[in-house]
Amino acid sequence: MTQSLVIRRPDDWHLHLRDGAMLDAVLPETARHFGRAIIMPNLVPPVVTGDQAAAYRDRILAALPEGMAFEPLMTLYLTESTDPADVAAAHASGLIKAVKLYPAGATTNSSSGVSHFDKVRPVLEKMAEIGLPLCVHGEVTDADIDIFDREAVFIDRVLDPIRKSTPGLRVVMEHITTANGVDYVKSNETDLGATITTHHLIINRNHILVGGIKPHYYCLPVAKREEHRLALVTAATSGDARFFLGTDSAPHTDANKEMACGCAGCFTATNTMSLLAEVFERADALDNLEGFASRNGPGFYRLPVNEDTITLTKGDAVTYPSKIDTDDGPVTVFDAGFPLHWRVD
Ligand code: DOR
Ligand code: ZN
Predict the structure, then answer these.
(1) 3-state secondary structure the chain
(2) Which of 25, 51, 183, 193 is the most buried (most CB within 10 A)?
(3) Which of 118, 248, 316, 325 is catalytic?
(4) Does the model's pTM come out above 0.90?
(5) What integer pLDDT is reported at residue 1 of this predicted model?
(6) Does ligand 1 come within 6 angstroms of the Cβ of 220?
């Protein structure tokens, strides 16, 4: 018997589209299945002003192939010199849907991020006042904190103090990777949500390191122990509206991944919905896939759910290209290491 599942068109609440040739190549991969995406601002140089976000939005729309519909939801990259008035104006005009906080040095192109959290206080207060969400890369960068502990320490030392001192600030903990992140979200009734990536639902740290180093499984925050992956699967598949899909699909060319100091990022735009269907089916939670991928995100961002639908159909193994071509070089598509059976129409 053919099994199929019709869900509202999903959105991606955390996506890297890059610019130029890479943008041209990866945008259709997302637009094929997703209606909207929160667009990360960590370009070189970063998208820090409303004018820059408007120009980036125009470049994204210009790169969209004829006949494809997709709405980029723009963000600003928070720096210690971000002007609260510029943020408020970009929000009031409808241009931006969030501001992104990168602790300086935490990840790809984060050197312009925040080192002294007191310096961004006026921006955070303005955001709390106008209801504009803050998307947080939740890792401390202190050299003496083990990389596998950086998310848990960030919650205690940075995130909780910021939230307590800025009542009303709406926060999305991006790409949570630990049971600590899940528990922190669940212990807060309001103003806090979390995105979970596709790849963190599938891999743990063994997948990166056992049997040889696998650069295409390396991302930040780095995948943790199996018990943490299981906590993420439980949260994502539970139906709890505070958890929603943000793929963090982050394309880098193979040349930049497969090197002595390879870039962080998994590219999942192409096959995410098939991967998620497999994960939710294994958790006996296919009924909650629509919530996670299509309803909870708009709920948090106070946007309508997409009007149209996609259909997932279970059948023989579905294959996706192992790489996509870009004018900058090939980009490897995330390989779950198990067969996929859910096709997307
Ligand atoms: O793995 C990652 N890649 N994590 C991030 O936070 C940034 C992203 C990128 O831009 O490549
Ligand atoms: Zn990201």
Answers:
(1) CCEEEEEECCCEEEECCCCHHHHHHHHHHHHCCCCEEEECCCCCCCCCCHHHHHHHHHHHHHHCCCCCCCEEEEEEECCCCCCHHHHHHHHHCCCEEEEEECECCCCCCCCCCECCHHHHHHHHHHHHHHCCCEEECCCCCCCCCCHHHHHHHHHHHHHHHHHHHCCCCCEEECCCCCHHHHHHHHCCCCCEEEEECCHHHCCCHHHHHCCCCCHHHCCCCCCCCHHHHHHHHHHHHCCCCCEEECCCECCCCHHHHCCCCCCCCCCCCCCHHHHHHHHHHHCCCHHHHHHHHHHHHHHHHCCCCCCCEEEEEEEEEECCCCEECCCCCCEECCCCCCCEEEEEC
(2) 193
(3) 248
(4) yes
(5) 61
(6) yes
